[in-house]
């Protein structure tokens, strides 16, 4: 048996050496290493031998099988390389042909704007804090100083779920409460974050309003934060976003969760302030709602309003993208029409 093994080994190796084509190689493999191949049958036949011969025979048979498999791999690669070289030489492959361009995907215009936001706010020392889309009524309203029956609740028509008090957030401001409750209370820490995310409002969809849209909330809480910090911070953001010469104005406003509150306008970057359709001939575009965090909200977040103060703002990236590119209809944003998306 042992000598038969060696004969077969020598024969298989010799045959392999003379093989030059893929077909011949396949046939060789089937003959020796296939399921019913000679070598494999030999390996299997170990069971028919007398006990004392089995170990030696098995070891040698396995070694031969492994050696042949390895030689087969090497042969297979060299045959492939030879075939490729022949193709190149014979002109079957034209290496001067230009490659086929691949279709590239693109980023959504909102993603572009959001990424620009992250960049600018990061440069200004604000970290991104992610809060949830599904909120409870308390965090979305009550803790933000809008108790039940507060008229401001009507300004934000709400998507309710079948679970009582579980809603889709109507703005990113509830994230203020969640962040403050994480960093406030015991061992209170200052905060400087932006909270980007989707907001939802149960409204009629029109060219100007959608039921879902991004907001980028900002929150800074510290020991000596004043209104001038808010003004300076937003002005700096606007310069980085709209250019160093961007002109700003602040208008007194009202939000239940900030006091005092103001809205921020930037001079219309499409007409340069002379008045156009996009700025509705006012020369100004609104970019943010903002204000000093209301003492009630600070307390609800675990910050003592006698010691801590802060500012907050909310911006709408879709609105800014819309204005920037003079897009006439907000419904394009979630319409998934490639003719729209491919323009960015
Ligand atoms: N949450 C407000 C809105 O959706 C915007 C805002 C945020 C105002 C933070 C003041 C401070 O309109």
Your description of this structure?
- With 344 residues, this protein is an alpha+beta fold.
- It folds into two domains: 2-90, no CATH class; 109-341, BirA Bifunctional Protein, domain 2 (2-Layer Sandwich).
- Helix content is 40%, strand content 19%.
- It has helices at residues 2-17, 22-32, 38-44, 51-90, 109-123, 137-140, 174-183, 227-242, 295-300, 317-324, 338-341; strands spanning 127-128, 134-136, 166-168, 191-200, 212-222, 248-255, 258-267, 284-293, 309-315.
- The strands form two sheets. It has a seven-stranded mixed sheet, sandwiched between helices. Strands 2-3 form a two-stranded antiparallel sheet.
- It is elongated, with a radius of gyration of 36 Å.
- Bound molecules: phenylalanine.
- Residues 171, 173, 217, 255, 258, 289-291, 312-314 line the site of phenylalanine.
């Amino acid at each position: 048996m042992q000598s038969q093994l060696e004969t077969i080994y020598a024969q298989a190796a010799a045959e392999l050496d003379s093989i030059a084509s893929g077909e011949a190689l396949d046939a060789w493999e089937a003959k020796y290493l296939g399921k019913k191949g000679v070598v494999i049958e030999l390996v299997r036949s170990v069971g028919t031998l007398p006990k004392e011969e089995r170990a030696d025979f098995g070891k040698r048979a396995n070694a031969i099988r492994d050696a042949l498999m390895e030689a087969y791999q090497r042969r297979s690669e060299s045959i492939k390389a030879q075939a490729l070289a022949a193709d190149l030489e014979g002109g079957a492959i034209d290496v001067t042909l230009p490659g086929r361009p691949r279709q590239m995907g693109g980023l959504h215009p909102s993603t572009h704007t959001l990424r620009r936001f992250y960049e600018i706010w990061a440069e200004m020392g604000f970290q991104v804090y992610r809060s949830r889309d599904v909120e409870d009524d308390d965090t979305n309203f009550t803790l933000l100083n809008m108790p039940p029956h507060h008229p401001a609740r009507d300004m934000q028509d709400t998507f309710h779920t079948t679970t009582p008090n579980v809603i889709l957030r109507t703005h990113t401001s509830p994230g203020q409460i969640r962040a403050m409750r994480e960093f406030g209370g015991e061992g209170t820490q200052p905060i400087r974050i932006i909270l980007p995310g989707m907001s939802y409002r149960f409204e009629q969809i029109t060219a100007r309003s959608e039921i879902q849209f991004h907001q980028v909330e900002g929150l800074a809480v510290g020991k000596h934060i004043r209104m001038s910090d808010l003004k300076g911070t937003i002005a700096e953001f606007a310069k980085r976003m709209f250019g160093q010469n961007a002109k700003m104005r602040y208008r007194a406003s009202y939000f239940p969760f900030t006091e005092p509150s103001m809205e921020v306008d930037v001079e219309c970057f499409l007409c340069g302030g002379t008045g156009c359709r996009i700025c509705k001939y006012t020369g100004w575009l609104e970019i943010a709602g903002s204000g000093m965090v209301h003492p009630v909200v600070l307390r609800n977040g675990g910050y003592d309003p006698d010691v801590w103060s802060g500012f907050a703002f909310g911006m709408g990236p879709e609105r800014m993208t819309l204005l920037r590119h003079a897009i006439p209809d907000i419904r394009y944003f979630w319409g998934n029409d490639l003719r729209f998306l491919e323009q960015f």
